[in-house]
């Protein structure tokens, strides 16, 4: 075991963060004769973590084997892309607001429910921002009024 641990250290391997079953190996017995251990692990080196970003291991329930299958989920870190989206209440006063929201919300996507909501909101974001930049927007009118009063 000492040689194995030294090899892990020399190879500069680290454990991936994980979720799922705590024990990865079982003798498939119940009662007093039951034995469960964590024998299996997912490891990565520096290159793995910098290239693949936020990856993690998921330990699934054992099936045929006495060992639990492990899957590795990889999520690439996205670069920072500016400030988060801010909803402006004045957009709701635009006569096209509900029409635009309905058009985007009825679109269908082949994805998980959470991802579908994410995609709909993402596509809606650009359309809503256009309300604030149109020449007839309330913000522009207020700026013109302010400019007129300050003269």
From TrEMBL:
<protein>
    <recommendedName>
        <fullName>Exo_endo_phos domain-containing protein</fullName>
    </recommendedName>
</protein>
């Amino acid at each position: 075991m000492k040689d194995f641990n030294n090899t892990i250290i020399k190879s500069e391997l680290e454990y991936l963060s994980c979720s799922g079953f705590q024990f990865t190996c079982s003798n498939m017995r119940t009662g007093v004769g039951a034995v469960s251990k964590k024998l299996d692990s997912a490891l990565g080196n520096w290159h793995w973590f910098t290239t693949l970003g936020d990856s993690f291991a998921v330990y699934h329930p054992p099936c045929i084997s006495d060992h639990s299958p492990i899957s590795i989920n990889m999520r690439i870190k996205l670069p920072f892309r500016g400030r988060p989206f801010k909803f402006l209440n004045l957009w709701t006063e635009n006569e096209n607001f509900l029409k635009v929201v309905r058009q985007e919300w009825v679109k269908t996507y082949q994805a998980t429910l959470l991802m579908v909501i994410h995609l709909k909101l993402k596509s809606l974001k650009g359309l809503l921002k256009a309300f604030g930049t149109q020449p007839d927007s309330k913000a522009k009118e207020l700026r013109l009024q302010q400019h007129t009063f300050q003269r």
